[in-house]
């Protein structure tokens, strides 16, 4: 069985390599997660690396159960200067304990938001198939806020750059990272996908 936490930490460490050289202009770049810029996503992934159950529970209580409000309030604590933010993310690399919540959370956040950052800056990351296959499978079972179950129901997904596939039904084929991004709601991922199931996925 795949060690999801170990894969998440690998994705985190690889993301840091892409964050080290960011400039103020890079940080101000809008991402596909509008209205979040690269700076917001760096703060968000830094918050993830510092997350604990007490902080989550208290934050959700203060947000009166509003998850989006909690996330925005939590990441605001890490919105600092570029150098401070990169140093703040680096400080999370020492963490070896998963954040609270389902196993897919850390792997998904570092993988998908990491790619959101890279794409905004005109880059692409390297994502091993042995990470993407399990992540796609886990995402396909999620409800809100990822909502992967609704998007993938009755469809199949096949990676053209890795030996994995999930689901049954009309096929959607493409690069593994774009399949995962599409399952999580990134509409720009459709550009590299093909197959009879694409229109159905797009409609969702």
Protein architecture, described:
- This protein is mainly alpha-helical and 204 residues long.
- The chain has helices at residues 4-19, 24-27, 38-49, 53-62, 67-76, 82-91, 104-120, 129-139, 148-152, 176-183, 198-203; strands at 156-159, 165-167, 171-174.
- It has a 3-stranded mixed sheet.
- α3 crosses α5, α3 (38-49) packs antiparallel against α7 (104-120) and α8 runs parallel beside α10 (176-183).
- The longest helix has 17 residues, at 104-120.
- The mean pLDDT is 96.
Question: Which consecutive residue ranges, at least 5 long each, have pLDDT under 50?
Answer: none
* Strand numbers in spatial order across the main sheet: 2-1-3
List the helices and strands in order. HHHHHHHHHEEEHH
The number of distinct helices, counting runs of at least 4 residues, comes to: 11
Helix content: 40-55%
Topology:
Blueprint: H1 4-19, H2 24-27, H3 38-49, H4 53-62, H5 67-76, H6 82-91, H7 104-120, H8 129-139, H9 148-152, E1 156-159, E2 165-167, E3 171-174, H10 176-183, H11 198-203
Helix pairs in contact: 1-7, 3-5, 3-6, 3-7, 4-5, 8-10
TL;DR of this structure?
The protein has eleven helices and three strands. It has 204 residues and is mainly alpha-helical. The chain has a three-stranded mixed beta sheet with strand order 2-1-3.
């Amino acid at each position: 069985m795949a060690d999801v936490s170990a894969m998440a930490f690998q994705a985190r460490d690889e993301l840091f390599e892409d964050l080290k050289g960011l400039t103020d202009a890079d940080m101000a770049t809008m991402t596909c997660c509008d209205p979040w810029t690269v700076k917001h996503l760096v703060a968000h992934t830094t918050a993830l690396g510092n997350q604990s159950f007490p902080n989550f529970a208290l934050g959700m209580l203060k947000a009166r159960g509003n998850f989006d409000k909690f996330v925005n309030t939590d990441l605001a604590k890490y919105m600092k200067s570029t150098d401070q933010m990169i140093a703040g993310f680096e400080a999370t690399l020492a963490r070896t304990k998963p954040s609270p919540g389902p196993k897919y959370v850390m792997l998904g956040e570092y993988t998908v938001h990491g790619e959101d950052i890279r794409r905004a800056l005109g880059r692409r990351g390297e994502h091993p198939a042995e990470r993407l296959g399990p992540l796609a499978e886990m995402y396909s079972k999620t409800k809100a806020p990822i909502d992967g179950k609704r998007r993938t129901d009755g469809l199949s997904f096949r990676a053209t750059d890795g030996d994995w596939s999930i689901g049954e039904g009309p096929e959607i084929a493409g690069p593994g990272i774009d399949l995962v991004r599409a399952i999580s709601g990134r509409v720009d991922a459709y550009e590299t996908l093909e197959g009879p199931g694409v229109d159905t996925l797009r409609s969702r």
